[in-house]
UniProtKB/TrEMBL annotation:
Record's protein name: BTAD domain-containing putative transcriptional regulator
Residue stretches making up the LysM domain: 174-231
Lineage of producing organism: Bacteria, Bacillati, Actinomycetota, Actinomycetes, Streptosporangiales
Biased segments, Polar residues type: 135-145, 276-285
UniProt region (Disordered), positions on chain: 132-172, 195-316
Protein family (similarity comment): Belongs to the AfsR/DnrI/RedD regulatory family.
Amino acid sequence: MFLLVGCPVALYAMGGSPIPDRIPSWEEVHATLMRQDTDQSVFLATMFLICWGAWCLFIVTVCAEAINYLAGRSRPTVPRTVLPLQHLVRDLVATATLTFSAAASLATSTSASAAAHTHAATEIHNAAVPELGSHHQSSPRQDTPPQDPTEPEWTPLLANEPTAQPKPDQAAWQTHVVKRGETLWDLARRTYGSGDRYPKIFKKSRGIDQPDGLPALTDPDILHPGQRIRLPRPGAPNAAPSPSRAATPRASAHSAPSEQGKQSGTRTPAPPGSRSGKSTASSVRSPVVAPPADHSVSPVPAVPNDQDDAGSPLAISLPSGSRIGFGLAAALSVAVAATRLHRRRRRPLKSDPDSSVYIPEPPIAAPVLKARKAHLDTYVDREVPVPSDPELVREDLLTPEPDHLIVGTRDGQGVTVPLAGLSLGLSGDGAHAAARAITTELLAKAHRYRAEVVIPQADAQALFPGDDITDLSTALEGLIIKPSLSEAINHLEAELLHRGRVLEATEQPDVAALRADDPAEPLPTVLLVASIPANNARVQALTTLGCRFAIGVLALGPWTSGTSVELASDATVTGTHGLNAARFTGARLFHLTTGDAADMLRTIRTATGTETAVASWPTNADDPQPVPELHPAVTIVPPPRLSDEAPGPPVRLEVLGDVLLGTADGPIKTGLRQRARDLLAYLALHPDGVTRDRACADLWPDDSPGSIVSTFNTAVTNIRSVLRTATGLSGPMYVICSGSRYRIDPDVIDVDLWQLTTALADAQQATDDAARIRALTLVADRCGGEFASGLTQQWAEVQREHLRRVVGDALTELVRLLEEDDPEQALTVLEQAITRDPYAEPLYRDVMRLQIRLDRPEAVRRTYGLLSSRLAELDAEPDAETCRIVNSSTQ
C-alpha cells in the first residue's frame, strides 16, 4: 500500500504535481539548464521526476502482470531491464508473507480466520512463485472422469473459492500443461466429444506465451511436454460434441531426453483417417497407474462386476471384505515382482549336488496375490502377452508421478480425484477403511520419488495398528511420520517454500511443468493424511496452493474447507457437502481392512529389498545354513520312459514358455480354449495323473462348485476334439481317465517339460562326473523359457519359481564341474544362467571370479557394469562382496 498510495502522496507533498501547469518554451528550458544551479532546484526537480518515473514503472509492471494473469499467459511480458524492480517487489512481498502467515495462525474467530487465510494464501503464493501469470486455479487433469450433464462443473478440490473472477470469455477456457504422449486429437476428443474439433483448440492456443526453452505452438502436429494450450472447461457451452468430420492431424507430446536433459517435440503419426493414416495408441496399460476414465463419452450404465468398457476391473473384492481399485492391484503386482527379483538377487547358489539345503522364503500374503492375479488377468482378457516380473519392473521405470487416484466407483464409472490441490474429508463408520485404501495405494506408488505421504504418529497408528507402518517408514522414503499435526504442517510449509524457490529458479509456473521440463528433479506428489481441526488456516493455505505445488490434504473427519464425504461401514457415501459434493453422491469408495492393509504394507516393504528374512540368509554360498527343503505344492515327476524302437508321439506340448500344442505339420493355432491350455499345463506337472477335484481346486478356485465339473469336462472335450482334428487320429483319448485320475497319454503327446525333468533325474542319479556333465548339458539345452509364462494362477507361479530355482542350481553344478578343465565353457553356461535369471548377483560374482582367473580385468568391469544397470531397475546396488571382487581384479 505504501508503494501504491503512500509513495505518490509523499512525492506530491514534497515536490508538488509532476505535471506542469503549462508547457515551457525552448528559451526557458535553455536558460534554466545553462544557468548555475546554486539553489539545487534543477537537481531536486530531476530527482522528483525520476521518482515519479520509477513509481509509474512500478504501476506499469503490476498492470502488465495483472493483464497477463487475466489473459491466461504464464509470465508477464516485461522488458529485461525491468526485472530488477520486479525482483525487489517480490522480496517485499516475501517479507509480508511471514507477517500475514503468523496472523492467520493466531486468529481465533471464524471470520478472522477466513480473512487471514485468504490474505496469507495470496501472499504465500506470490512469495513462493511470484508470477501472477501462473494459474493457481490449475485446469483439471486430463484423467478426470467424464462429466455428467446433470451435475455441476467438476473442479479441483480446492479449499477456497477462486480469488479472482475471469472474464466471460476466459471463464469458458482453462490453461492445460501438455504431458508426454498427449495429442491435440485426444484432447479435443475428451473435451468436445470429437477429435475433429482439434483446430479450435489449436487456434485458441497459438497466442499463448510459452515457458523459456519451449517454442511457440505453430504446428498442430507437434507438441512439446510443458507447452501450454487452452481447453474448454467441462460444461462450457463450446464443449459440445460436433458432428463435423474434418482432417485429423494429431499432435503428440513426446519426451526425448538428451545429455542436457532437454525435451524435444516429435512429429507423430495421426489417427486412422488422418493424413498419415497411422495410430500411436498403445494396447498395453501401465502396470501402476490406474486406467484413467475416458472423457470422450458420457457416463454409461453400470458394467457388471465393476469393469470398465475395456474389460479392466474397476473394483476387486477380497475374501476379507476389502474392496480395492485396479490402481492398487497394479501397484501391488509390481511390488510382488520386485520382491521376487530381490529374493532371486540374494538367493545363494546351491553348490553341493548331494545337499538338500534350501533357504525358505516368507510367503506372499493371499490378498496381495489375489490383487496381482486380477491385474495380470487383464492382459489375458485383452489377449496381450502377460508380462514377466522383469518386464513389470522395467515398465514401472517409465511410470510418471501419480497425479490422480480412482477412489471408488459410481454407476459403473471410476470416481477420480486429483492429488494436487486435493481437499477432501472422510467421516463416518467407513472413513478409516477408505482412507486406509487411499494411503496404501499411494504408498505402493511412492518409490522412485513419485509420491510422499505425511501423517502424524497418532493418525498412522489409528489407520494401521501395529508396527508395520513404522517399519515401512524406515524402509520407504515415501512415508514420513511426524510426532504431531503441527510438525507435519511445518514439514509441508518447508517443502512448499523449497518448491517455490525451485520453480522461481527454473522459471516454471508449477510442479507439473517442471516435471515435464526436468524429469530428474525429485518433487514427488505430497499428501497430508491427518485429523485436522476445523478452520485450520495453515492447512487451508496449503490446499489453496496445492494445485501449483502438487500437495493435497486428506482429512480424517468432517472437513468444511473443501469437500466432505460421510461414509457407511461398507464405504457407501451417505452424505456429502462442499465444492464437489455431487461427484461423490451415490458412490461407493474403495476400502481396506486392517489385516489386508498390513499384508500389503509388508509386500510394499519387501519390494524395496529390505526384508527381515534376508538377514538370515548366508552370504557365503559355500557355507549355507542347514534349512529343510521346502517343495512347492506340486512336485514334478519324470514320466515313464518310452522304448527307443517306439515311434515318436504325433503331438508335442510345450509348456516352457507359452503353452502351445503342435503336430508334425506345425503349431495348432486355433480351436484350443484358454481353460484347456490351463489344464494341459497342469497335467504336464502330473505325469502320473491327478484327480478331477484336485485339479479344479488348483485351476479354478473362484468358480462355483456347481459349475466346476462342467468346466473341467468342457476343457477335456476341447482338448480331444482339437487334437483329433489336427492329427486325423480318432482312436487316442489324449487325456486318459484311469481310476478317477486324469493324465496326459505319453504315447501320443510328448511334453518338453518331461524331457527336462528326465535330464534332471539323470543328473541326480549319475554315479560319476562324466555322466553328470552329460545329463546337466542336456538340462542346459532343454531348459527353455519360464514355465507356462501366460498363466496367472498361483499354482503356476509357484511351479515357475520352483523350476527356475531347480534349473539354476543345475546350471551352477555344471559350472562347478567344468570350471577346472574348461573355464570357457563354464563361462558360457554362466551366461546362460544369467540370461534366465538376470538379477541373481551370485551368478555375476562367479562370472567375475572366472574372468579374474583368466586374467580379463576389462571383462570384470563390464560384468560389474551390467550387474549395476540391472540392479538399478530395483533401486539397488551391488553388495560389498561383489565390490571386493571387482577391486581385487585391478590390483
